[in-house]
Amino acid sequence: MTLLSDIKDYPWKSLLIGLLPVRLAALLPARFQTRAAQIVPSASIAGNALTVVIAIMSFLACLTLGAVYMINQSANAWVNDISSEITVELSPINTPDIDKKMTLVALFLAKQKGITEVKPLTAEDSASLLEPWLGQTTALQALPIPRLIAVEIDRSDPPDIQSIKTALSENFEGVTLDDHRRWQAEIRTLTRSAALGGLAVLGLVAAATIAVIVSATRSAMASNREIIEVLHFVGANERFISREFERHFLGLGVRAGLMGAFAAALAFLLLPTMMDMLGGGIVTAAEAQRLVGSGELDLKGYLLCVLVVIVVASLCMVTSRLGVIRVLKNYA
Amino acid sequence: MIRFDNVGLRYGSGPEILRDVTFHVLPGSFHFLTGPSGAGKTTLLRLLFMSLKPSRGLIFVFGENVGKLSTAARSSLRRRIGIVFQDFRLLDHLTTWENVALPLRVTGKRESDYREDVTDLLRWVGLGDRMNAYPEILSGGEKQRAAIARAVIGRPELLLADEPTGNVDPAIGNRLLRLFVELNRLGTSVIIATHDYALMEQLDAPRLVLYDGHLQISRAP
Q1: What is the average pLDDT across B103-117?
Q2: How close A234 comes to chain B (CA, Å)?
Q3: Cβ of B51 and A235 within 8 Å?
Q4: B16, B10 in Cβ contact below 8 A?
Q5: Which parts of chain B fold into alpha helices (H)?
Q6: pLDDT of residue A1
Q7: Which pLDDT tens digit goes with each residue over B34-91?
């Protein structure tokens, strides 16, 4: 009940007025206007420097969250792609007619339940897969390059991979089946590591923001000590006094958060162009794309930036409120 | 209403400013607090207002032991007390009207509920044409009246005033005294700390006389 009445009694109108620039606030309907002057003057709260610091924190938080989100999206796409596919590898060693063996294995696979498509790759296809690492060279023809068969599986009714594996090894020499589980596990580990790294960065950003706000709150209270004393003398309680401070910090948090999120959104918008410009060639660009996708953030990603603004503003408000109440305990 | 039992106060490890102060203030009473400069009048007022804690002894305000009050309870009791400081303590960035309205604003009342009251009181204390002026351009007497208006706007049960007529001419001083007397008739207990014997002689009220840290209670001569 206390929390509900606290929310109900909160001076939302004056908060809204405080958030907007004076000219814009004057355009609001009369019911949003308030004649009451600010008891704690805005000018006495640390201003531009603090706004810039919080904006940078928001920017870093948005970048971190966006990057983790993008990597996660790309990883999900990879996992989805490869989880519906298995690869059969045929070693050319000790195999006089590899093409015949390819056909036999393909026919065997096509008969198995749960397999929807079997696609044998040509020797050229295998060579082109090695091109990014070895380049275009005729020497590849002389090398014993393994031949591959791409197999699509029915994800709703998957085949018994283990029995196919056993059957292949029993019937064909030098044929192995890769169901990409190790690769999927590695991708999951990578995304989890990225998420944990992102979480650590967000934790550091939050800690730095809290430290800055605590310091600014103490400084604001020291410079407004006389006002606080007068408020005490006229019977203001801790809640009233903390509100007078916290609404300044909430306004500051919203403004700084928006600035940081806007800058981060701009950075994400420009990221694909920057990746093209700084990619250092087709191969590197392709590798970067494989890692973070196209570099474009979707709507959910931008909503995360909005979430950052809300969290930063709330953090500013709550930290300043707790800071004020803590300092007030020392007042008579 | 107020009870002091053997109250003593010292700042840090210095000598005792107040010693064995014992007195009662009954509801609806009127007292002058007097004594030479440095006798501890302002300190006693601060103890009454709970902005200082006694070094020893017990203080009861509205029946509550001040030493055991929570911060919230102290704020709540302070709303029942009006105080006028010698140095006014007006907020320079608020207008006279906003300063006077402050005790009502902190209670969460709507401005429309007290607008008329504040305006009427400011007219009554002779500041009708200074309502929108900021304290820094007010004269000493005007600041004094604004500070008094702020102390009485909430119809306190106890009014404490530290030299309330120190900066005003005798005519305004008499008018302010009439305001205190009127409040007292309406049920507010009043304690006025003053050097002004002319002011004290106008009223047959008991005097709390502080001398050398001790308190004596005497009637008007």
Answers
A1: 90
A2: 5
A3: no
A4: yes
A5: 41-48, 71-78, 96-105, 111-124, 140-152, 170-185, 197-201
A6: 45
A7: 988 888 888 899 899 898 889 999 999 999 999 888 888 888 899 999 999 888 899 9
Instruction: State both tokens at B186.
Output: 């309406």
The verdict on B107 touching A (C-beta cutoff 8 Å) is yes
Contact assessment for residue B213 and residue B40, using Cβ atoms and an 8 Å cutoff: yes
Fold (CATH) for B1-80+156-221: Rossmann fold (3.40.50)
Say yes or no: A5 contacts chain B, CB-CB below 8 A.
no
Amino acid at A159: P
Q: Which helix (H) or strand (E) holds A169?
A: helix A161-171
B65, two tokens: 């032991």
Q: How far is A37 from chain B (nearest CA, A)?
A: 7
Q: Could A235 and B98 be called an inter-chain contact, meaning their C-beta atoms sit closer than 8 Å?
A: no
Q: Where in chain B is the domain with CATH 3.40.50.300?
A: 1-80+156-221
Please tell me if residue B108 touches chain A, with a CB cutoff of 8 Å.
Answer: yes
DSSP class per residue in A262-305: HHHHHHHHHHHHHHHHHS-SHHHHHHHHHHHTTS---HHHHHHH
Across the interface, of B49, B50, B91, the residue whose CB is closest to A230 is B91
Assigned token pair, A317? 């408000």
Interface contact flag, B78 A232, Cβ < 8 Å: yes
- Chain B residue with Cα closest to A233: B78
Q: Could you say which residues from 217 to 256 on chain A have a Cβ atom under 8 Å away from some Cβ of chain B?
A: 226-227, 229-238, 240
Q: What is the ipTM, given to two decimal places?
A: 0.85
Inter-chain CB proximity A234 and B102 less than 8 Å? yes
Which residues in chain A come in under a pLDDT of 70? 1-26, 28-36, 46, 137, 278-295, 331-332
Q: Can you give the residue ranges of every domain in chain A?
A: 37-78+185-328, 92-173
Pair A14, A251: CB distance under 8 Å? no
The residue in chain B having the minimum alpha-carbon distance to the alpha carbon of residue A34 is B111
CB contact under 8 A, B106 and A231: yes
CA angle, corner A73, sides to A72 and A78, nearest 5? 95
pLDDT given for residue B95 in this prediction: 94
Which tokens go with B77?
């009791």
Rounded CA-CA distance B163/B60 in Å is 24
